[in-house]
Amino acid sequence: MREAERERTPPPGQESLRHRAARVLEEHAEEIVEDYERRLERAQSLLLSGEGASRDELLEQARRLLRLVAEALRGRERPELRVGEEISRNQEAAGEPLSHPPDESFRAGLELSKAALERVLGELDLSGEPPGEVLRLSLRVQEAIMDHTAREAMVSHVDYLLAKLTEVQAEERRRLSRELHDRLAHSMALVAQSLELHEALASSDPETARQKLQRAAEAARRSVEAARNLARELRGSEASQGLELALQNLLEATVPAGVRTEISFSGDEEHMPDHVRDQLYMILREGIRNAVAHSETKALVLEVAVNPEEVRAAVTDHGKGFEASSEHEGVGLSSMRERTQLLRGDFRLRTSPGEGTRVEVRIPLGR
Questions:
Q1: pLDDT of amino acid 80
Q2: Is the distance from CB of 178 to CB of 118 less than 8 angstroms?
Q3: Which of 83, 224, 305, 322 shows its CA 20 to 30 Å from the CA of 32?
């Protein structure tokens, strides 16, 4: 122990209530962590079952937090850091990215507070201590744990958003790959095949060769149109030019000619922050694609209503519907649900076999 710390540490028997509580946290850290782990198991915490930090890393994080709380009770709190610096330090301490929802960190912090408080109050001889002092000690322990938990949650929140961003980028790359393959590669392969047949039949069967050449020309025209539609859709995906315009472009580019479309847009888009507008566009785009790909509908209705408090939107088809079940929910529906939750919104799916499908989204705009 350094000399300065030895001078600040009271001798045994003369310790304050806070110093005694700090000693309990240090001497019984392992029992507290074991209790904490049991509590998380009973609560079926995602921190134990989800991806991200391992169980050992999570429990080591709890030990580190208890040491920090003990230092705080002894009055050795470290100077406050700026938020950015705190996030950076905690990310380094966490090691692996934390991909769980941030509210799980707060629930875990509460469980650690309960485990620590029960151990402190159980080990200390509180007879003769004024009730007010015991109450202040309890509040101080909980405050210290939740303060550090909130700082740890900053890391969780940042990692969670970065993980979602990575998923979105990966899905967008997969979508572009599918579009290029389905729309362009097939047509261009047909062009190449028809030209090869034309060349092979030019001398022996001029009439068939001419038909192959016409077929190549038609496939080439379809390829050009597909490329234009894809480029238009990609431009439309940048909803910065307006959500209504982007949705209209999307309907024109992706809905087959035999499907009747209707779009209803009300309210002022200016109420929506840019990130809400972009995410809502991607949610509705997925809904439209799902309807076109799976519903066999002949009519598609898109509704958006914006006011200063919230934006409501829905995609409705009159197709074959399906049996709704979270177990069989596809990637598209999961993506729509997750994007909505990230915006603190509500997502509802209404469907049944033969009754069509309607997906509804409500996103609050107030801060």
A1: 53
A2: no
A3: 83
Dihedral, CA atoms, 289, 293, 296, 297, nearest 10 degrees? 10
**Closest CA relative to residue 100, chosen from 142, 54, 36:** 54
- DSSP symbols for 162-197: HHHHHHHHHHHHHHHHHHIIIIIIHHHHHHHHHHHH
Predicted confidence at residue 22, as pLDDT, reads: 92
Q: Do the Cβ atoms of 265 and 301 come closer than 8 Å?
A: no
* Beta strand spans in the chain (E): 260-266, 299-306, 310-317, 346-351, 357-364
Quote the CA–CA distance of 195 and 210 in Å, as a whole number. 10
In tens, the pLDDT along 121-160 reads: 999 888 888 888 889 888 888 888 888 777 777 666 666 6
User: In 212-298, where do the E strands start and end?
Assistant: 260-266
Query: 335: exposed, middle or buried (C-beta count within 10 Å: 0-12, 13-18, 19+)?
Result: middle
